[in-house]
Description:
This protein has about 260 residues and is an alpha/beta fold. The protein has eleven helices and eight strands. It has a single domain (about 5-245), classed as Phosphoenolpyruvate-binding domains (TIM Barrel, Alpha-Beta Barrel), CATH 3.20.20. It has helices at about 5-10, 25-35, 50-60, 75-85, 100-105, 130-135, 150-155, 165-175, 185-200, 210-220, 230-245; strands at about 15-20, 40, 65-70, 90, 135-140, 160-165, 205-210, 225-230. The chain has an eight-stranded parallel barrel with strand order 1-2-3-4-5-6-7-8, surrounded by eight helices. The protein is globular, with a radius of gyration of 18 Å. One of its GO terms (molecular function) is aldehyde-lyase activity.
Amino acid sequence: MSSRIDVTVAERSVAWGGWVVGPTFLGPEEFARTGYDYVGFDMQHGYLSDADVALMLRRLEHVPIATVVRLPSTDPAPIGRVLDAGADAVVIAMVETPEQAAQAVAATRYAPAGVRSFGPLRASLGMDAAELEARAGVFVMIETAAALPFVDEICAVPGLTGVYVGPADLAISLGHAVPDMWTTPEVTDAIRCVAAAAKRAGVVAGIHAGAGKTGNMMASWGFQMITLASESQALRRGAAEHLREATGSSGDNGAGAKGYS
């Protein structure tokens, strides 16, 4: 058994994702209905508890969409809880060294390979530790200048599913303004380097694009897991388009997607 993200990438070459930052049942289901491949739940910047995430994951148990949860650190306890609740993968923020990446992997593995505690919360997950390990994908975020010299070593960490670029924090770390992150050569070169390192290591390259056009560009750069929009961005864009149609106005359709992460 492999993680659902790995399977999707193998089948379709690119997995397209939505993002959820607050408690909602409709958002993830609408992403699935629209044809997105995965939905991410944000426990770093979002307003979500692990109980919120567990309820939404349960709601999606029979919905054809993969699920990932972003967490702020390699602390094994919260990582284990969201995996026990049925998340298909975790995305660990602010990883800067191969040692930290190895800690993230260990948090998804049982002894002797890791430090995860056994305790699946859903009967449908089964009780086979090896299968539970195999279905748990683990991504680490490359989003600081300090991580860039170690990208190849991070990508080579055994058991890692992939790396995931946070372009906003990466731009800030490199000394550039967030609105300029897609047009500043130092930032875009760093982003391309991460994708290239992932390809060399044979792991999935992911990124927070924040908009469809940017997502298309990231796919051309070799990224295979691309988050397009959060539920608030999607709602704002749709609401603005309805208002534009109703009033006959033109101009900014309210997309406002900057690709923040």
